[in-house]
Design a protein that fits this description.
alpha+beta, six-stranded antiparallel β-sheet, elongated
Length: 171
């Protein structure tokens, strides 16, 4: 049964990318932001923390994006990035970063994001009928599929930028 609010299209733990080595963090963040702008998502960096440690820096970056599909469905993609033992390095006159990076991607649909169907018992009942019988197939085939494709395109873009093996999925 489909419930109101967050509807995850994957396990709630999300999918991960782990990278240990040298990378360009500024370029990576710019690529992510450009991806969301091209796909018409609103993008914001929701959290940044950095701490100086004995072995370099520890950096936490949280990113949130969403896109209104119609009056009932909103796509969400959240990224959580944790970098430990980060330090600046210079390679061929370029300032890059080195460290252990963990990125976690989560995607979900938010149903009835305008909260129009939660006013009283009758509207909640009609909402239950609407999402579990009338548009259930559309949620499962169209909305989930399109959000999953967006997520995997972003995931592959990040992996490609980091020089990791990528998978390609049909549209």
């Amino acid at each position: 049964m489909i419930t109101r609010g967050q509807h995850f299209i994957m396990p709630t733990t999300g999918i991960k990318i782990q990278q240990k080595g040298i990378y360009d963090l500024k370029d990576l963040l710019k690529i992510i932001q450009t991806f969301f702008e091209e796909k018409r998502y609103t993008f914001q960096i929701s959290e940044t923390q950095d701490k100086a440690k004995d072995k370099g820096y520890e950096l936490i970056i949280g990113m949130k994006s969403d896109r209104d599909i119609d009056d009932y469905v909103r796509f969400h993609i959240d990224i959580h990035m944790l970098i430990i033992e980060m330090e600046k390095v210079k390679v061929k006159n370029k300032n890059l970063d080195r460290g252990n990076m963990d990125m976690n991607f989560k995607a979900y649909l938010y149903l009835d994001y305008k909260n129009r169907w939660n006013k009283n018992f009758m509207s909640r009942f009609l909402n239950l009928i609407y999402k579990n019988y009338i548009i259930k197939i559309k949620i499962k085939t169209e909305y989930e599929r399109n959000l999953y494709i967006d997520l995997m395109e972003l995931h592959n873009l990040v992996k490609e930028r980091l020089g990791l093996y990528t998978h390609y999925y049909g549209a």
